[in-house]
């Protein structure tokens, strides 16, 4: 029981190692309530193709937020569904999060570093 709790805590907020994507197409998986990879780095100066796949039991609605505004919005993605968008972000660090209810504070958030 204690082991199970420790493992659960370790898994919470710890998205593992940052992932560096060298290609221009990448996929993030969302679940209730997390996003994997949680820290993702992608090339700058390119048009990127991002796919979101929902592995949770709830719908999620992903956004990518810069310093002052969202630069990309995915529609409501149903459980088991996926959605793809292309975008060309400037260099910088962005937040990936779910806009629904309090999903972001429950853990459905990550970082996207461009460059
Ligand atoms: Cu959500």
3D architecture notes:
By secondary structure, the protein is mainly beta. The protein has a single domain (2-114), classed as Immunoglobulin-like (Sandwich), CATH 2.60.40.420. 12% of the residues lie in helices and 43% in strands. The chain contains two helices and ten strands; from the N terminus they run αβββββββββαβ. It has helices spanning 2-11, 103-106, and strands at 19-20, 25-31, 34-36, 39-42, 48-54, 62-65, 70-73, 82-87, 92-98, 109-114. The strands form two sheets. A six-stranded mixed beta sheet has the order 1-4-10-9-6-7. A four-stranded mixed beta sheet has the order 3-2-5-8, with no helix packed on it. Strand 2 (25-31) and strand 3 (34-36) form a beta hairpin. The model is unreliable at 5-12 (pLDDT under 50). Copper (II) ion binds next to loops.
Overview in brief:
This protein has helices at residues 2-11, 103-106; strands at 19-20, 25-31, 34-36, 39-42, 48-54, 62-65, 70-73, 82-87, 92-98, 109-114.
Keywords:
single chain, 2 helices, 115 residues, binds copper (II) ion, 6-stranded mixed sheet, Immunoglobulin-like, mainly beta, 4-stranded mixed sheet
């Amino acid at each position: 029981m204690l082991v199970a709790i420790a493992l659960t805590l370790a898994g919470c907020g710890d998205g593992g190692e940052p992932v560096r994507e060298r290609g221009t197409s990448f996929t993030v998986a969302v679940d209730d309530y997390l996003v994997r990879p949680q820290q993702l780095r992608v090339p700058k100066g390119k048009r990127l193709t991002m796919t979101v796949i929902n592995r949770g039991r709830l719908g999620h609605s992903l956004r990518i937020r810069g310093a002052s505004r969202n630069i990309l919005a995915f529609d409501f993605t149903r459980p088991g569904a996926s959605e793809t968008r292309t975008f060309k972000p400037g260099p910088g660090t962005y937040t990936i999060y779910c806009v629904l209810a309090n999903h972001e504070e429950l853990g459905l958030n990550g970082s996207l570093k461009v460059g």
